[in-house]
Design brief:
With 233 residues, the protein is α+β, with helices and mostly antiparallel strands. The chain is 36% helix and 11% strand. The protein contains eight helices and four strands. The structure holds flavin mononucleotide (FMN).
C-alpha cells in the first residue's frame, strides 16, 4: 500500500486535501541493552502456546476477554479501517447450535469436499468432524471481517488486517494463561445467522477459549528452526 504524505500532494490530481492531523509519537523506550532479553522473554512465553482441542468448562477470569479484544483492536489495519468484529458466544443454547451447524459442514468437508492431499496434511494433527470444544469451552469467539455495507466503509487488506488482530488476541490470551483453538470451519456463512451479524460481515475464525482439560494432549509437532525461516541477504 502506498501512504501518500503531504509532500506527495503536488502529484495528487484531487483537489488539495488538508494535511492529516498528527500527534507526537510516544515511543516505547526500551534500553538497547535490554532489548534482546525482552524479545527473548516474549518468545519464551509464546513458544509455549499450543492449539488446544480439549477444554475444561471453567469460566474465564473476569476481564481477560475484554483486554484481549482491546489488544487485538490495536492491530495495524489497511487504511486504518479496523475491519474486525468479535462475537463472544457464552449462551449454551447458541453454542449447541454452533456445534451442530459446524459439525454438519465438517462432515461434508471430511467426507466429500477435502482433497486427499488436504486430508493427508491434516492427518498428523488428528482433527475430524467432531467438535465438542464448541460446547465445552466457556467462550467461543467468532471473528468477523467487516466488508463494505450500509454501515461500513470498504476495507483494504482485510484478511491481512484481521489475521494480525487475531495473532495479538491469541498472544494476549496465552499470556493470561488461557488456551485457544484457531478453528476455521468451511464454509462459514452459517455463522452470520448464529451470531446475528449482517451480511457484509464474514466470519473468518471460530476461537474456543478457556482452560485446557486436565488430561489435554496436543499433537507432537516441531517448529521450523530459525535458519530455515529467516533469510538474511
Ligand atoms: C488459519 C488457521 C486455521 C486453522 N484451522 C484449524 C481448524 O479448523 N481446526 C483445528 O483443529 N485446528 C486449526 N488450526 C490450528 C493448527 O492446526 C495449529 O496451529 C497447527 O497444527 C500448529 O499447532 P500449534 O498451534 O499447537 O503450534 C488452524 C490454524 C490456523 C492458523
Amino acid at each position: 500500500m502506498v501512504h501518500t504524505s503531504a509532500h506527495d500532494s503536488a502529484h495528487d490530481s484531487r483537489p488539495h486535501a488538508a494535511a492529516p492531523a498528527t500527534v507526537p509519537l510516544r515511543p516505547m523506550t526500551v534500553p538497547a541493552h535490554e532489548a534482546e532479553e525482552r524479545a527473548r522473554g516474549f518468545y519464551e512465553v509464546m513458544a509455549q502456546r499450543r492449539t488446544v482441542r480439549d477444554f475444561d468448562s471453567r469460566p474465564l477470569p473476569e476481564g481477560v476477554l475484554e483486554w484481549a479484544v482491546r489488544t487485538a483492536s490495536t492491530a495495524p489495519s489497511g487504511a486504518h479501517v479496523q475491519p474486525w468484529r468479535f462475537v463472544a458466544l457464552t449462551d449454551p443454547a447458541r453454542k449447541t447450535r454452533l456445534r451442530e451447524a459446524a459439525e454438519a459442514e465438517e462432515r461434508e468437508f471430511y467426507g466429500r469436499r477435502a482433497s486427499e492431499e488436504w486430508l493427508d496434511a491434516l492427518a498428523p494433527i488428528g482433527t475430524d468432524e467432531h467438535k465438542p470444544f464448541l460446547e465445552t469451552a466457556p467462550v467461543v469467539l467468532v471473528v468477523f471481517e467487516v466488508h463494505k455495507g450500509p454501515h461500513s466503509p470498504r476495507p483494504y487488506y482485510t484478511k491481512e488486517s484481521v489475521g494480525i488482530a487475531v495473532g495479538l488476541l491469541l498472544a494476549t490470551l496465552h499470556q493470561a494463561g488461557l488456551a485457544t483453538l484457531t478453528h476455521t470451519p468451511s464454509p462459514m456463512r452459517f455463522l452470520n445467522d448464529i451470531c446475528d451479524r449482517p451480511t457484509e460481515e464474514r466470519a473468518s475464525y471460530v476461537i474456543p477459549i478457556g482452560y485446557p482439560a486436565p488430561d489435554a494432549h496436543v499433537p507432537d509437532l516441531t517448529r521450523k528452526p530459525l535458519d530455515e525461516v529467516l533469510i538474511r541477504l
